[in-house]
């Protein structure tokens, strides 16, 4: 499933044209690809649920702000147990 999703998204990336240029695929083909990706995603979620895990991977743009905050190692303070 993961491989099929990656192949489809790679094809989409390679076929994406600059704004203003005609898209090489028909609207029907684009909709079929969307449906395939939806089916793949749904099945991945079903399998994850059966295994007791949760899929948290969501697509994002590289310039989108992330919820992860990086902390330099030298700023980490160790809490010591008081005896």
Task: Give me the secondary-structure topology.
Layout: H1 2-15, H2 27-51
Helix pairs in contact: 1-2
Give structural attributes.
83 residues, flat, 47% helix, mainly alpha, single chain
Task: Explain what the structure shows.
There is one protein chain. This protein is mostly helical and 83 residues long. It has one domain (2-75). 47% of the residues lie in helices and 0% in strands. The protein has helices at 2-15, 27-51. The longest helix is centred in the middle third of the chain and has 25 residues, at 27-51. The model has no long low-confidence stretch (mean pLDDT 83).
Brief digest:
The protein is an all-alpha fold and 83 residues long. The protein has one domain (2-75).
Determine the N-to-C terminus distance.
53 Å
User: Which radius of gyration do the C-alpha atoms yield?
Assistant: 21 Å
Say how many strands there are: 0
Oligomeric state of this protein:
single chain
Shape: flat
Nearest-integer average pLDDT: 83
Beta-strand level of the residues, as a percent range? under 5%
Low-confidence spans: none
Helix/strand-derived category reads: mainly alpha
Tally of separate domains: 1
Would you list the SSEs in sequence order as H and E? HH
Tally of DSSP helical segments: 2
Largest sheet: none
């Amino acid at each position: 499933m993961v491989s099929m999703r990656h192949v489809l998204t790679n094809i989409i990336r390679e076929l994406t044209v600059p704004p203003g240029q005609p898209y090489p695929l028909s609207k029907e083909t684009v909709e079929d690809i969307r449906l395939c990706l939806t089916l793949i995603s749904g099945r991945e979620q079903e399998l994850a649920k059966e295994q007791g895990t949760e899929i948290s991977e969501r697509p994002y743009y590289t310039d989108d702000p992330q919820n992860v905050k990086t902390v330099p190692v030298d700023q980490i303070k160790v809490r010591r147990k008081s005896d």
